[in-house]
# Entry
Amino acid sequence: MTNGTESAARNISIRGPVVPRGRANGAVARDTEGFIKTGLLGEARKGRLLVSRDPDLVYNGGFTIAASELDGLYQAFPAFLDAASFVLPDPVVGDRIFAAVVPAPSVPVSLDGLHRFLAERSVAPYKFPDQLLVVQEIPRGDHGAVLRAEILRQV
# Structure
């Protein structure tokens, strides 16, 4: 953002004394100029920086998780034919995680069963969904990407 000009949404990167140090290939990876990516998007409008979020990231309890990682974890549960994560905002934890699931025929759906499955695989508890939503199908785009906004329209 320079001189109040407008810009398209871009990834926000930061650097400075309050930014944690990290290795070039570590969890807090810096680019060649010392910046790290925040996972947030921003654009300049009328001289102000408007911050939005990357729709492919989940912010839960101070952790940032790729939604596709959650999808893979939930899809691995043998009782589901398909599954995907989606979120609703929560003022305390950031995002409340839900799993939209297409159950296998004649197989009971259980949130506790999914939690046990994830725990047996040493998945961090902040990646567990808070609730399950049974759907007929997981909406997907032309290239197979989950259409998360469309999941809510099925409710």
In short: The chain has a mean pLDDT of 84.
